[in-house]
Write a structure and sequence with these properties.
By secondary structure, the protein is α/β, with parallel strands linked by helices. The protein contains 14 helices and seven strands. One of its GO terms (molecular function) is DNA binding.
Length: 329
Amino acid sequence: MTNATTNPTNTSKAPAGKDRRLGKGLAALLGEPMDDIVPPGETNDAPKPGIQSLELPIDSVEANPFQPRREFNPDEIASLAESIKNHQQLQPILVRIVDGRYQLISGERRLRATIHAGLKTIRAEVREADDRLVAELAIIENLQRKDLNAIEKAMSFKRYIDEHKCKQDDLARRLSIDRSTIANLMRLLELPQPIVEMVTSGELTAGHARALLPIGEVEVQVATAKKILEEGWSVRKTETGVAELLRAEEDSDTGLKVTNVSRQKRKPVPPHIEAMQQEMRMVFGTKVEIKASARSRGKITIHFSDAEEFERIRGLLGGVNRPQLRVAG
């Protein structure tokens, strides 16, 4: 341990009642810098009011274990490193003290760029934050800067919900974002690994991937994803293609041979009904049929392939805390 971290006080527990609402900036969330941290080379002999930051050895700062971002653009890091060398570090990183070590809260790009620039120290501010708040800050910082791809966002949401045993509504409230944003992104994790990798690499957009969710068969999903890349489908074209696949599947479910004549005799689905079906397919990730009569009556049929999918849909419809039901068949 270097003299820069002499006698640090563990600050991993946030004070009771601290305002944790996100969307108001990191400073508003974390409060003022701690004034009782002793900078390198100083002692506790006299009070040192107004300490804003201190210089920490690079190797004394540990990574943020809750950082959802997995990929950092090397060109961006190199550019930032050049800026730091030419103009110095304009904004300190934020750290907390955990088990006698400084742990990063915010500023991983600055930390990486400082290392890239070959500097030995970095300017930092020490704040109080518990694990849950640090996880929230890591998510919101990247969301605000659009640094994460859709899969990284989805994985960060899932990790937070699993670790803190909360619901999507709870996380949405704490991050000040719509619950549907969280739900739509987390749904991407239900896709086959090859498609997840396509989204992660940027080959496929989140919109394309979301359109593939209603397809039940993994092989068909992957084949359709490859076709999207080969033929350069737009998201709209993908949605249309998936709808056609689902209609073909519907024909096969009847066990009857479907000819062009019989297709032409089939009563066409009104555009507004088709639009609603497509919207609900995106929401539930499975085939949805809407039958409406002239008297504005009708029914909605939501298809599922097994008990697990049934429970997933049931959770979307009415919450996840109901008792499990047995599915016949």
